[in-house]
Design brief:
alpha/beta; elongated
């Protein structure tokens, strides 16, 4: 099995609903995404996929949809005000935790027919969340 990983940096803001800590307030992050793709075979160039193709697809989408935007839950009370002010927002149906943002990026990569194995979102240099669809061990 072959695996490649590419990192993409972007800035985003969010806040968590139903949360008692500081992250209940609007705030921002300098995030880093690590996208791992995996396949059993290589193409005729000896590549799983060209890193440039990942950049054209996933990095371009992150840049246009998530970078320098507030990622907010569709029920967030601040959403309508930010939209009225024409502030850049990306609306999701889940609480915009690092876990759910990693899943959002994973699902986009999967929709592009890329052999995505997992996506890790580093919210800070010391904190990350990973989403992937792995086989669960049988008991």
């Amino acid at each position: 099995m072959y695996r490649i990983t590419q990192q993409i940096d972007f800035c985003y803001g969010h806040r968590l609903l139903n949360y008692a800590g500081k992250c209940r307030n609007l705030h921002g992050h300098n995030g880093r995404v690590q996208i791992s793709l995996e396949a059993a075979d290589l193409d005729n160039r000896g590549m799983l996929i060209d890193f440039t193709d990942i950049k054209k697809s996933i990095a371009t989408w992150i840049d246009s949809e998530l970078d320098h935007r507030m990622i907010l839950h569709e029920d967030d009370p601040a959403l309508s005000m930010l939209q009225e002010l024409n502030e850049p927002v990306y609306v999701i149906s889940h609480n915009p935790t690092a876990e759910n943002i990693a899943r959002l990026i994973y699902e986009f990569a999967n929709s592009e027919n890329l052999p995505v194995r997992e996506v890790t979102l580093w919210e800070t240099p010391k904190s990350s969340a990973t989403y992937g669809e792995w086989s669960s061990p049988s008991h």
